Amino acid sequence: MKYVLGIDLGTSGTKTVLFDQEGHGVCSATVEYPMAQPQNGWAEQDPADWWHAAVSTIRTVLEKSGVDKKDVVSLGISGQMHGLVMLDKDGNVLRPSIIWCDQRTQVECDEIHEKVGKEKLISITANPALTGFTLSKIMWVRKHEPEIYAKCRHILLPKDYVRYMLTGDYATEVSDASGMQVLDVPNRCWSKELLGILDIDEALLAKVYESPEVTGHVSSEAAALTGLSADTLVVGGAGDNAAAAVGTGVVEDGRAFTTIGTSGVVFAHTSKLAIDPLGRVHTFCCAVPGAWHVMGVTQAAGLSLKWYRDTFCQAEKDAAAMMGCDPYDLMNQQAAQSPIGANKLLYAPYLMGERTPHLDADCRGMFFGLSAMHTRRDMLRAVMEGVTYALKDCLCVLEGMGATPETMLACGGGGKSPLWRQMLADVFGLPVATTVNTEGPALGVAILAGVGAGLYPSVEEACRAMIHQNPAQMPIAENQPKYAAVYEVYKQLYPANRELFKALAKL
């Protein structure tokens, strides 16, 4: 039996899963790490934390599984997208990584639009300039930390830094590189025109591969640290959402998924390039060679619930520790005791600004309608509903582009909640299912690793053979008009407060 590793480098932690060649999870391990917010709207992480987490989780799964390292033929890495990692000539990290949810670069985004032209930028990168993307972060460092930029010789994404530490190779792949905003997305290569306009040296950027392609193998130094064999192949891997698509089988036209991780995503596969001229959703190369995906993103989905847990739910955390269960299970029980609409309490999940459909770095979260009658369970349900409405916003844009799914797969931490899945089904008006294997991104990059190692002939065929769905949760007819009425109010919250958000940002 041959084995493949899937490493999922998330915002809150790294999870590594060992799979056999039939796609069964053999063993997994997770290590968490912090996120720093030096100023309001900023978000940074230490790349060393990612590497230490990868080493620890790889070693743990190998030791616990008892699998011979020589039988682990390949590995893939999934990663949080858009983070900026800058290395000097010796491969040393120059500064903390500015990660995807950082919102400091609006001025740089405006500068990109001014120099390149918004229409031209969208024609090349399939997206407008966004604060979350890597390009504006590069320009921010060049402007505000010129001494750091002068020393920079390599620019990598988070998962590609872990790849570098594992292999010594400077490499990336098309799905994650699409989110840097310097990739020619239609042609799947770095844009020399864009780099020239913005005076960025292409030599700073890594070689671009397709996601299932082999980029190298584990170095002897990394093998000694992790317990892997130096013969283990490393494939391109994928950005977190592209990896989740493979891990849920969304690799053919007509398929879609919603993920509720730190951010929230509604994602549809397409074999034909489709670009929203308004830039409300993102078009990226996907992990299937020669295909793309379209996705809407809400910045603070699971992050909203985690923020609520850490700020207001110490009692649930303490009780869960005593009971040996997950605090989120107890929080779900609390939220279920509040009715649809949370007793006329709404939550806007703009903790880190917003992408789809507002593209506004200045908007911020809010509870609307709060009164003395409301309890924590109302606030908790309002948070879950608010995230669901933000995801509905994403789905509406995709449907307007012709991406109209017949069913929806749910994944990510929030997708494990039956209550949240029922909310999605009722608000989307679609059956919502999960896959039997819930590893999502880790399974996705493990499948890519298997394809790269020759265990499967193609990504599509591997998914058809390895991924199976659980029965779907159907929309409940009597719930749908209740949610629809609340959603109509929710849709008015952002436009009613747009100017106030700008005024708040200037204080």
Structure description:
This protein has 18 helices and 23 strands. It is an alpha/beta fold. Strands 1, 2, 3, 5, 13, 14 and 15 form a seven-stranded mixed β-sheet that branches. Strands 18-19-17-16-22-23 form a six-stranded mixed β-sheet. The chain has a two-stranded antiparallel sheet with strand order 4-7. Helix 10 (about 240-250) packs across helix 16 (about 440-450) and helix 14 (about 375-400) packs across helix 15. The N and C termini lie far apart (about 60 Å).
Summed up, the helix count is 18
How would you state the average pLDDT, rounded? 95
Content-based structural category? alpha/beta
Hey, roughly how much beta strand do the residues contain?
Answer: 15-25%
The low-pLDDT segments are: none
Number of strand elements = 23
What coarse outline follows from CA principal-axis ratios? globular
Q: What's the alpha carbon Rg, rounded to whole Å? A: 22 Å
Distance between the termini: 62 Å
Helix-residue proportion: 40-55%
Largest sheet: 7 strands, mixed
Brief description of this entry?
With 507 residues, the protein is of the alpha/beta class.
What key phrases describe this protein's structure?
507 residues; 23 strands; globular; six-stranded mixed sheet; seven-stranded mixed sheet; alpha/beta; 19% strand
Mind sketching the topology for me?
Layout: E1 3-9, E2 13-20, E3 25-32, E4 44-45, H1 47-65, E5 72-79, E6 85-87, E7 97-98, H2 106-116, H3 118-125, H4 134-144, H5 146-151, E8 154-156, H6 158-167, E9 171-173, H7 174-177, E10 183-184, E11 189-190, H8 192-198, E12 207-209, E13 214-217, H9 220-226, E14 233-235, E15 238-239, H10 240-248, E16 256-260, E17 264-270, E18 282-285, E19 292-298, H11 302-312, H12 314-323, H13 327-336, E20 346-348, E21 366-368, H14 376-400, E22 408-411, H15 418-428, E23 432-433, H16 441-452, H17 459-466, H18 480-506
Parallel strand pairs: 1-5, 5-14, 5-15, 9-12, 16-22, 22-23
Antiparallel strand pairs: 1-2, 2-3, 4-7, 6-8, 10-11, 13-14, 16-17, 17-19, 18-19, 20-21
Helix pairs in contact: 1-6, 2-3, 2-4, 10-16, 11-12, 11-14, 12-13, 13-14, 14-15
